[in-house]
Amino acid sequence: MHYLAIDIGASSGRHIVGWKVNGEIVTEEVYRFSNGVVQENDHLVWNTISLIEEVKKGIAVAKRKFPDIYSLSIDTWGVDYVIMEGELERYPVYAYRDKRTEAIIDEVHGKMAFSELYKRTGCQFQSFNSIYQLYADKVAGRLENATDILMMPEYLLYKLCGKRSREYTNATTSGLVNAATCEYDREILAALALPDRLFPKLDAPGKILGEYAGIKCVLCATHDTGSAVEGIPMDEDSPYISSGTWSLLGVKSSTPLTDQNSMLANYSNEGGVGYIRYQKNIMGMWLVNSLQKEICPELTYAQLVKLAEESVCDVTVDANDPAFLAPESMKAMFDKFSNNKLSTVGDYFRCAYRSLALCYSDSLAQLEKNIGKCYDKLYIVGGGANNAFLNTLTAQFTGKNVVALPIEATALGNLKVQMEV
Questions:
Q1: Which residues are the active-site residues?
Q2: Predicted confidence band at 141 (pLDDT cuts at 50, 70, 90)?
């Protein structure tokens, strides 16, 4: 029996078919497509029409090669959503890197202090969290006639099978889910005057929603990091980094940690499949990808790594500074934060990789302090796991035994949930 995982990130999407051989999951990528934000009227938005078309194209390709596909599921990045007015979408569908939330963050915290928000949700502060996006939409009047808010993967599944759902792991990225009850926090909704009707009971991973083209549509852990963590074959509960556009560094926990130290360190408590992902959203390969597109698009990533290894530059920058989130020029930001000490292409990329490794080290040290436990291993999955140079730097900066697993962890976690339904 075959299963289909549709894994969509901020820059690309993949359709991966999986099945079991001798108890182990075997996978084959059958379709890949490009994704990315679009500039529209001075805002960053998603082309959801194109996303739906690509999802359906990939399913058709998968079905031709594997006619007996039993089920499919979709995972994407968190926080972003589509506003529905009955059967119609409300456009634009804003992307998390858009800066529209910056003007209303203080107003949100004036209605409920962040310390209280964190105590309730355990959700780290990020200017793009759904709570701020939704409040910006409320202020702009975009929620007045709304009948539903669907997070991106749930929206895509709805477009396939016609059933609307709100999946738990993805909802926990919103900043609106109570860490203790695992449901939307009604007091937060009331404080911000967000329409209660838009936030119904949450669904757990594993729920069958309906069918598309004879294939069952199932909820996996639809937040891609939730699926990635579920897909890591760890011997024990060690820290992990899911390395992609963003790097998600964390550890599995049986209970949420919403204490002041966790808040000050900006650690988040996000939903997993039967556990809490105590993790931090930190900068990832966005730095490298943006630099490559701007200063040397003709070079491959393998060539960039070689140049970085040959450089002797020892400069680092604060990779987590908000200035690196969506700059007009990534090179200009590196020049500014390095005091113009970078000269060659190799210098820029060595600085980027070293800065990421330093960021990982600082965040892991804070995690161990908050958890009260020291770990020997650090697991790395995702695209960054293929970068031997970054892995070596990470081992040097953290002092940990880095276990790099160049596997499709997100797809494996997606498939794992489907296979257990």
A1: 224
A2: very high
High-pLDDT (> 70) share of the chain, %:
100
Tell me 386's DSSP state: G
Closest-CA residue to 375 (of 402, 394, 409, 393): 402
Mean pLDDT, range 43-47, rounded to an integer:
97
User: Look-up: residue for tokens 């800065």?
Assistant: 355
Please name the residues in contact with 290: beta carbons below 8 A apart, sequence gap of 6 or more.
Answer: 327, 330
Q: Where do the domains of the chain lie?
A: 2-225+411-419, 234-404
The answer on pLDDT for 235 being more than 80 is: no
Q: Do domains 2-225+411-419 and 234-404 have the same CATH topology?
A: yes
Average pLDDT over residues 76-102: 96
Q: From residue 162, how far is each of 11, 47, 146, 156, 216 by CA, in Å?
A: 26, 20, 17, 10, 12
Buried b (16+ CB within 10 A) or exposed e, 357-376: bbbbbbbbebbeebbeeebe
**pLDDT at position 213, please?**
97
CATH of domain 234-404: 3.30.420.40
Residue 231, amino acid? G
What is the average pLDDT value for the chain, to the nearest integer? 96
CA dist., res. 365 & res. 39, Å (int):
38
pLDDT band at 246 (very low <50, low <70, confident <90, very high): confident
Query: 53: Cβ–Cβ under 8 A, 6 or more apart, which residues?
Result: none
Average pLDDT over residues 58-85: 98
Give domain 2-225+411-419's CATH superfamily. ATPase, nucleotide binding domain (3.30.420.40)
Residues 153-190 as b or e (16 or more Cβ within 10 Å = b): bbbbbbbbbebbbbbbbbbbbbbbbbbeeebbbeebbe
Helix, strand, coil shares of the chain as percentages rounded to 5? 40, 25, 35
Can you tell me the distance from the alpha carbon of 371 to that of 298, in angstroms, rounded to the nearest whole number?
Answer: 44
> 3-class SS at 253?
strand
Cis peptide leading into residue 92 (ω within 30°): yes
Phi, psi (5° rounding) for residue 234?
Answer: -90, 140
Kindly report whether the global pTM for this prediction surpasses the value 0.85. Answer: yes
In terms of Cβ atoms closer than 10 Å to its own Cβ (0-12, 13-18, 19+), residue 123 is buried
Beta bridge partners of 379: 240, 403
Residue 183 has which token pair?
């449901």
Residue among 234, 283, 228, 274 nearest 255 (CA) = 274
